[in-house]
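pinned: reference chain
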Amino acid sequence: MTRRIGICTGGGDAPGLNAVIRAFVKCSLKEYDWEVVGIEDAFNGLLDEPRRLMVLDGPSCQGLLHRGGTILGTTNRGDPFGWPSKGGPVDRSQDLADAVREEGLEGIVCIGGDGSQAIALRLMNERGIPMIGVPKTIDNDLSATDYTFGFLSAVEVARDALDRLHTTAESHDRVMFLEVMGRDTGHIALSAGIAGGADIILVPEIPYDPNRLAAKIQQRKALGRPFTLVVVAEGAYPMGMASVAPKERKAEIAASGGAGPLAMTLLRGLVDAEMRCTVLGHIQRGGSPIAFDRILATRFGVGAARLVAEGRWGQMVRLRDNHIEGVALKEAVARQRSVDVNGELVGTARATGIEFGG
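pinned: its structure tokens
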């Protein structure tokens, strides 16, 4: 009997999702002769009536390597343990397990970030659905893997934006703020800031003092550089908010228009400069993956097929010391990777004169 394996993409989209699907399908067909079934919109395709599934073969995966987004669709509102309904969230995890059995799926390969992998782990532990995880997040905040695909593509988008902002900032002697994604961690802001020649980088891991930012801007002006580039992670906040609970802090940042506009507002009156803020938002998620992410996603797709072939359900593929291997899902979701404030990358940035405000 032909083995039938499901695959889905969950959470926010990221460049490289299609490349993982392509690699998994190609390897499954070429080396194992499996049937691969795509589940649309995370786990929703198995729970909707009628079910939304598609058999993935060679032709359906043509042209996917460079294509952004995901042909399967995705959602961050597809938790079967908290399924949205008019009367409030309901637990439909058993319905999902029944659907997996009825469709003859041996298990599911779940491509997603920490939230999706936590759901996959719970489905395996509580409902007995065999799961393999593939790490995906542009935030690069899964500690179990050295890199997640999509991250460096997002960094490249932010770096390109900084290059463009540099010329207009220099032309008008402005302080230009670039707000990038990073609700809880500042990996995109840190890497893009270093690569794009930012003068100030603000990340959630280092609460900032607006006076230090003002001093940096004034110092540049005194050196004949009357413009400044500031990269702001969307979760960055001033020292005055350090004692506020995370949920309330995020609400305050949102009420201020975002982390970039908040930092800009706090600097008004401290510096005599024209200021502008650009928010990249979902531009960082769209478009084609760069070469690194295409290669990593392909390695992850093949690695996921290898785990299935070896019966290593309950594991997630990861990159560790430039090798693809498996790690237990429980370990994969145990700890978020934050920016190491005392690490080599932050130290490199400080050594080149970049200000963090704290």
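why pinned: The domain at 152-286 is CATH 3.40.50.460 (Rossmann fold). The longest helix spans residues 151-172.
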